[in-house]
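Good day; I would like, with your permission, to put a structural problem before you. What I wish to show you is a protein chain and, alongside it, a tokenised description of its three-dimensional fold. Here, with my thanks, is the record as I have it:
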Amino acid sequence: MRVSGKRILVVVIMGILVSSVIAGAVSYFNRSSTTTAPTDQTLLNSRLNNVVDFCLKSLPTGTSACDSQLGPILDKICGGENKNIQQSLDACHNGKVIQYYKVRSNELPKRKMLVSNSSNNISEK
């Protein structure tokens, strides 16, 4: 199967965005200083929102990176013990990630049907 250059570029960009969010989350949780916490939390929120928006803009086709990494990463960030972080991060409670996966779950059966129909048409000729 041949992978297009655009698809590779999207996967690379998504990997960079996801790693940026993870790095921001890890650095935030590892800091003990409370003076920079609001700034770090704002930065983490902004980065996380950028990743979620990127994934939403890729709908209905989506990306493999969003499909496989967005949910687990958000679960790690929002499933932590610090309730203040969960409340301040938009992605933990705005439902956009759930919306992404809902659209993708509706789209995947349609794509499989289109692929099977097109392969049936080819074999009939």
